[in-house]
């Protein structure tokens, strides 16, 4: 006789528990999906990769205009040695050129003196990167199929020089030129020994003290 009320009470409590569980489940919100860009990568990943890319590009651009080879190698074929150079081979000179950091004001030794035309040129390296402007110097014998005559400013030429990476084979525009005696020199700048550095023209040199 007393078992039936207890059974009804237990059944009622079970029904309330099920109802409350159902309400709790209905109120829960699904977890937010990660944001993706149109190429399928996450936005956070894309932003991080972008910062890395710009940093690397900046590092490269900071030194690409000064990567002269430590050994400039022999003079180009066909160039004429100067018969009466102001600074003969073996002469110590004071350099007044700023072709690369630490060069201006250092003492150098002349290792070659030549009668030629030296050109300042602007070009984009074949290896990519930023354009190089007003590069000093490239001589007549380092211009592909240029012939013997001095070329005017604005002329377009192809470089056959290897002073810097990406230079050989690059198309360049002549900015200016000079027929001063042109020299190869040995010197040390910023702790780096430069051998057969090409080129320094006579107005960029002074007698060593």
TrEMBL record:
Gene3D superfamilies: Domain of unknown function DUF1541 (2.30.30.1210). Residues 1-21 form the signal peptide. Residues 29-80 are annotated as: Disordered. The keyword ATP-binding does not apply. Pfam families: DUF1541 (PF07563). Residues 48-70 have a biased composition (Basic and acidic residues). PROSITE patterns: PROKAR_LIPOPROTEIN. Residues 34-43 have a biased composition (Polar residues). Residues 89-140, 154-202 form the DUF1541 domain. Transmembrane segments: none annotated. It comes from the Bacteria. Keywords: Signal. This is YdhK family protein.
């Amino acid at each position: 006789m007393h078992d039936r009320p207890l059974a009804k009470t237990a059944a009622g409590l079970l029904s309330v528990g099920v109802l409350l569980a159902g309400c709790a489940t209905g109120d829960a919100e699904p977890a937010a999906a990660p944001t993706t860009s149109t190429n399928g990568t996450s936005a956070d990943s894309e932003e991080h990769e972008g910062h890395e890319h710009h940093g690397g590009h900046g590092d490269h651009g900071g030194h690409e205009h000064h990567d002269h080879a430590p050994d400039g190698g022999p003079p180009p074929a066909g160039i004429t040695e100067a018969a009466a150079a102001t600074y003969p081979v073996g002469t110590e000179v004071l350099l007044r050129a700023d072709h690369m950091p630490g060069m201006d004001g250092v003492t150098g030794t002349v290792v070659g003196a030549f009668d030629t035309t030296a050109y300042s040129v602007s070009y984009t390296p074949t290896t990519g990167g930023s354009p190089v402007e007003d590069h000093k110097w490239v001589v007549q014998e380092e211009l592909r199929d240029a012939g013997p005559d001095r070329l005017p400013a604005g002329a377009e030429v192809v470089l056959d020089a290897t002073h810097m990476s990406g230079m050989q084979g690059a198309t360049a525009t002549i900015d200016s030129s000079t027929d001063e005696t042109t020299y190869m020199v040995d010197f040390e700048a910023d702790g780096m020994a430069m051998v057969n550095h090409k080129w320094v023209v006579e107005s960029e040199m002074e007698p060593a003290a």
